[in-house]
Write a structure and sequence with these properties.
heterodimer, A: alpha/beta, Globin-like, Transcription Regulator spoIIAA, 2 domains, 10 helices, 9% strand, B: alpha/beta, 5-stranded mixed β-sheet, 4 helices, 5 strands, 18% strand, globular
Chain lengths: 297, 122
Amino acid sequence: MTDLQTVPTDNKTTIDTTGTLTRELVAHLRENRTGLREEWLRRIFETELLTAMTREEVFAEATSVYDSYVEALETRTLEALQAYAQNLSERIIPRGVETHEVVGIVLLLRDVLARSLFAKYHANFKLLNAVLDAYEPAANSIAITVAVGFVQQRERIIREQQEAIRELSTPVLQVRERLLILPIIGVIDPQRARQLTEQLLRGIRATRAKVVVIDITGVAAMDASVANHLVQTVEAARLLGAMVIVTGLSPEIAQTLVNIGVDLGKMNTVGDLQGGIEEAERLLGYKVVLSAEPVSA
Amino acid sequence: MQVPILKQGPHLIATVQSALTDADLVQLRDAIVEQVGRTRARGVIIDVTALDVVDSFATATMRDIAQMIRLRGARTVIVGIQPEVAFAMVQMGLTLEGVTTTLDLEEALEHLGERQNGKVAR
């Protein structure tokens, strides 16, 4: 969507015959830049949009948006505006600006400009109609462009974050010969549970592990399906000949599990990671002793 | 396809070399249970490293074998379940409850050896 003419609207597209009108329109918007921008800002503050930003920031952004908007009307291309919208989204999304706010300010600008056109051409109804025919499709496609740009940017950020979490979240670590630990942090969804299990099974095979300590201190909440995944992971590891010790069940999780009646009878649980590793060492026949006084720092 | 059952010291080792039909599994079960008595074996190892599919009948048969062997006074260890197979099995709810499983033959021999000496871990 880079060409205004391709955007369907309810209005008659009279783009080709309205070249002069567009020029007139743009000239009008340039001439009244200060006044219209002030009016726009007044309405933004009035409707309490963009509260996450300071007034000065809103003012600076509004000026650039206004100029890009007029430029898009004039050149009838959306590339520059698209790039600007993306750039703007990148800057304001981390600050918690919501989709409705961004769409809201663009629509406000559209309305403010339309009002000014009404005011200017109200004496000549035919001319007003012609100007609006030139203005409305362009204004609508600008609004769509900005909204789509913002949402796309948001989705891209969400996707990137999900991927980052996914990559970060499943290290299988060897602490001793034949002893692995798998710290789980964050949310376990079916996809992640599957990935976790696959990674663990591969790890067991590669390191010939006999005992695995799964630490779920970092798991905030657990429901029946997550518990079920955990049971499956334990069972799969056992099929490969590795024993699993689960550590770090919080009091809340323990209560939840008992309340929902998940059968964790087959699961070996130890209070914390340290206890789990000690138990694993015992099972593997290790004995850790102090060989000397600890080195003082 | 028949599964060869070899005697190795006090143990019997059955190595599955290709996919088994249900009839093959039944034949394997009968052969093992019979040979445990004849050879006075104390442990039975079933190596399924070569299997890339383990279905519900195979799982049930392995469970049966383990229980029958125990009644005959010996122990069973299943070895070499592939990670993908293990994952698929738990997804389908097929568990080898009460059956010892180990990573490979070496582990299995070690496990059976420990049992003999009354030790739990090495």
